[in-house]
Design a protein that fits this description.
Blueprint: H1 4-7, H2 20-51, H3 53-60, H4 64-90, H5 97-117, H6 122-139, H7 144-165, H8 170-234, H9 244-261, E1 265-272, H10 275-282, H11 284-301, E2 307-312, E3 315-321, H12 325-340, E4 355-361, H13 369-385, E5 391-393, E6 403-405, E7 411-412
Parallel strand pairs: 4-5
Antiparallel strand pairs: 1-3, 1-4, 2-3, 5-6, 6-7
């Protein structure tokens, strides 16, 4: 990260940003703090100024000069307190810089006017001028040019009043001048350093915020990409069902849970009948519509805890945790009937969709998911060889033969010998 001082140049004498827009942004950021601090510090400085009315009485007594001093202090205090109230609500370096300068000039004028009214106390007024100068620079929040001009006005006005009203000697004037020059120098360069440090800190903070914002955007973008990649990996793009790999992982976890809970677990394979004919006759776009419609029908027929995925081509696979084999057969029958009622291809109203389903269940606690899929696949193959459009239940591991159910009939057929799972007759 480049240093803020090199990225955003600061004026060597005012400490402000060269860029007007950045300076306005900085002033806007400190506006609430400036309002509060200005109202508080100006009120404190004004009350301290008012307290010196006690010294007026001590030095002048109940004289005309005391009356004039009290009147002047009252006007200065009232004006500054009103301005403190106004600045606490409307203070703004950008639009109302003159409003921030006004109380300093009023206080400076009030301090200068003490000299002709109390000329004999000139030596005691010099420390007050020094303290007021430091207050202008460091106590009351203000821009450096405003504080510097007000402090110079106070110093020059005090020297002129000392010469005219108090008839100060050249030595006193020289000593006072040097003291005020030193005071203004210390105050000026101290405030200049503070102004630069505050703006550098602001620039650094802004750059960090920009980088944090960019980092958040980058993280959000990466998370979005990860979500898209995960969706691509876990979801079939055409049907929206689980991909084969994601289904296998979910089904394996469900099978382990069912074994642990000692609950049944069933699985069935679904194959769209005559799908190759549909593709060859009406095109692959119509074939995609058929697959999407059947996938939607399957989702609607299953429970939320069931898992369905696209196994490949026109084949789907469903895992039913906590479901007995007979209950799985009834679910498959209902699904087969719902598919038969679908109307997808408008140009072929007489063509009815159908599916063949092979059902298998866990009859042996040692059976794994791959074995269960092979059993369902062999049952599915038996249904395809037996005429399609039916549900075939596998009873491998028991003496009962697989049962197949066509649309309106029920019979059992012997299970064929194991065959190669890569088929070309679908």
């Amino acid at each position: 990260m480049p240093a803020p001082g090199t990225t955003h140049q600061l004026h060597p004498l005012t400490g402000q940003f060269h860029e007007a827009s950045r300076e306005a942004l900085y002033r806007s950021s400190i506006e609430p703090r400036v309002r509060t601090e200005t109202c508080l510090t100006l009120s404190v400085a004004t009350l301290i100024y008012a307290m010196f009315a006690i010294s007026d009485y001590f030095y002048t007594g109940l004289t005309l000069e005391f009356t004039l001093l009290i009147t002047m202090r009252t006007l200065v205090v009232a004006s500054c307190l009103i301005l403190a109230f106004v600045l606490g609500r409307l203070g703004d370096y950008t639009r109302h810089a003159w409003l921030h300068a006004l109380p300093l000039w009023i206080l400076a004028t009030g301090i200068i006017l003490i000299v002709p009214l109390r000329p004999e106390t000139l030596s005691t007024q010099v420390p007050a001028v020094v303290a007021a100068t430091i207050a202008f620079y460091l106590l009351i929040p203000n821009l450096l040019p405003v504080a510097a001009v007000a402090s110079l006005y106070l110093g020059i006005g005090f020297l002129v009043a000392s010469v005219i009203a108090a008839d100060a000697s050249p030595v006193v004037v020289m000593r006072t001048t040097l003291l005020l020059i030193m005071t203004n120098g210390v105050g000026f360069f101290t405030l200049l350093r503070l102004e630069k440090l505050q703006r550098k800190q602001f620039a650094l903070l802004q750059e960090e915020r920009v980088q944090n914002h960019q980092l958040i955007e980058e993280i959000t973008h990466r998370q979005s990409l990860e979500t898209q990649l995960r969706r691509v990996a876990e979801q079939d793009a055409l049907t929206g069902l689980d991909s084969r790999g994601h289904f296998m992982a979910c089904a394996e976890a469900l099978l382990r849970r069912c074994r642990f809970d000692k609950t049944p677990f069933s699985l069935f394979m679904i194959d769209v009948d005559h799908f190759k004919t549909i593709n060859d006759t009406w095109g692959h776009s119509q074939g995609d519509r058929v697959l999407s419609a059947i996938a939607a029908a399957c989702r609607q027929s299953l429970r939320p805890q069931d898992v369905i995925g696209r196994f490949g081509g026109e084949e789907f696979i469903v895992a039913l945790p906590g479901t007995h084999l007979n209950d799985a057969r009834m679910v498959a029958e209902r699904l087969k009937e719902e598919v038969a009622e679908l109307t997808i291809i408008e140009d072929m109203p007489d063509q009815r969709l159908s599916v063949t389903i092979g059902v298998a269940g866990v009859l042996d606690e040692e059976a794994d998911l791959e074995q269960l899929i092979q059993q369902a696949d062999r049952a599915l193959y038996a249904g395809k060889r037996g005429g399609r459009n039916r549900v075939v239940v596998s009873h491998e591991g028991s003496e009962e033969a697989p049962s197949t159910q066509p649309r309106n009939k029920s019979w059992t057929t012997p299970m064929p010998e194991p065959v190669n799972l890569i088929r070309t007759d679908r």
